[in-house]
Structure formats: C-alpha cells, structure tokens
Amino acid sequence: MAVSAKDVKALRERTGAAMMDCKAALEEAGGEMDKAVEVLRVRGQASAAKRSGRSTDEGLLASYIHANGRVGVLVEVLCETDFVARNEDFQEFAREVAIHIAGSPAPPRYVSADEIPEDERAAERGVLEAKARESGKPDEVIERIVEGQLGKWAREIALLEQEHVRSDRYEGKTIEQLRAELASKTGENVRVGRFARFRIGED
Fold first, then answer.
1. Which partner from 17, 26, 128, 133 sits 20 to 30 angstroms from 49, CA to CA?
2. What is the CATH number assigned to the segment(s) 5-52?
3. What is the CATH class of 58-111+158-199?
4. Structural domain spans, the chain
C-alpha cells in the first residue's frame, strides 16, 4: 500500500531510522505506526552485528552533576549521523549513562572489559590465585575458580557490563543491553566512547 510522506517523517522522528527503512516498514505494516515500529525493532536486532562495524563520527557529550554537588560526570556517546545525535531517545540514553556513572556504588573504570590493561588483569589474577590456593584444592579446580572470579571482577569495573543503577526503571538491564536496544531502535551503530568521573577530594 502507498504510505504518506507525513507518516514516514513521523516514524523517522519516533525511531531515528532511515527514511527508506521507515517507508518499507510502514508498507509492510499496512500503514499502522505501532506495527511499523515493531518491524524496525526486529530488523534492527537482526542487523546489529553489521552496525557494530560502521563508523561513529557523530554524537554528543552528556554531563551530570549529582545533587550533592560533589560528583560530576562527562560521557561521550557516539552514533553515525547528527540526526540520531539530536534524537530524544539518544540524548536520554546519554544522560542516563552519565547518571549511572555518577550514582553507581561501584563506579566503572573502563567502558568495556576489553579495555582492561593486561598488566592489571594479570595482577588481579595473581591476587585471586593466591587466595584460592589457601583452600588447598587441586590446580584444575583453582583455575576454574580464578577464571570465574576474574570474569566477575572485570564485569564489575566495566561500564557496559554494569546493571543500570536505576534497576527498577530499567528492569535490571545492563548499560550494554540499553545501548543495544537504542541501536536497534535507531538503526545506527551506537557506542559509548569514553567517560570521566570527578569527585571532590579525589585525584
């Protein structure tokens, strides 16, 4: 069926998806807006792997100062186009990431676990192995214990692996899950570039 340019524009504004994708989704959904949104969401999930390799030269810096005025955060969130960077959902995600970093009881130190330096990972492994050997268990058991604890440690200090501090609002989802949902909704590669957290009295 034929769809109007007005509906295509409305769907683009709602989802941030490309115009041609919006037109195709509306045609598939028989002109029903909510169904078209679902079509784009499903297609977005299917193409997530393809998006991850695309360049992200646009985006924004989001900031958040905690109510007590003693903690502040600046975070860079990137996407492919300035259109999506101006999207309300994109801006809300960036702000929510900043809020999480400011309010997390275990502030992240890296964006992802892949960014943890090998020397830091090796040092932590050494500490965990020393503690595990005190149990007197066999080496193969100790190795499994250490690997599990090392993975848990990495997840605790990596932003994307952390559950959003407002768990009730986001149903226990991690920052990575929220990022993936936004990427699916906008049809673009979305990533957290870097962040800085400042606290009065801390270097």
1. 26
2. 1.10.8.10
3. alpha beta
4. 5-52, 58-111+158-199, 117-156
CA distance 88 to 182: 11
Question: For residues 80 and 6, what is the distance between their CA atoms, to the nearest angstrom?
Answer: 24
Residue 111 burial class via C-beta count within 10 angstroms: exposed 0-12, middle 13-18, buried 19 and up? buried
| Among 75, 84, 71, 9, residue whose Cα is nearest residue 44 | 84
The pTM for the full model equals 0.70
Concatenated DSSP letters for 85-141? HT-HHHHHHHHHHHHHHHH-SS--SBSSGGGS-HHHHHHHHHHHHHHHHTTT--HHH
pLDDT tens-digit series, residues 97-155: 999 999 999 899 999 998 999 999 999 999 999 988 888 888 888 899 999 999 899 98
